[in-house]
Amino acid sequence: MKKYYIYYDIDTPYYDGEKVCSAEDFVKFFDDDQSAEIELRINSFGGRVDQALAMLAAIERHTGRVVSYVDGVAASCASWLALAADEIHIAKNAEIFIHCAHSYAYADAAGMEKEAAELKKYDERIVAIYKGKAKNPDTDFLKLMQEETLLMAGDAAQLWDITIDEAPSVPTNKTRYNKLAEKCTRKPAEEEPTADN
Q: 10, 21, 132, 171: which is deepest, by most CB within 10 A?
């Protein structure tokens, strides 16, 4: 299984050496072998919508199985990528954060109204993404987005078909010592009483 880590902001680098997860690298990775099974590890606050949409399209057209793991946080558009997988996992202490589309605009009143209309269209597309994997399609995702909702693992698993992964139990020196001590708890055999003369 091939692995891809989304452990940075979803963006294009502004300077040489900046660590981001770009659509260009992501799409090339997915399109390089369409039949490959891919493990997608996510710990990202999200980023640019245009980049995320290209990445989402790459996942959706991929013919191989994609399994996503939310290791820390899948916020904003990073949550779309997690939910696009064929199988979705989340660490028990991880979280998903959803909200409406944001924008930076410098315009007059008419320009602001146009920008607001565009943002509403984006919100409709985001709602469709969340509804696509929802256990209950009647869930009011727009309301949850407007409230900027932080979903812990248990909350996310109630909304979508997500498996919560428990951390594996790793034996420590203390647990090894306790197991060894249990084996050494046998008492020595009592001596047979001797008859008095």
A: 10
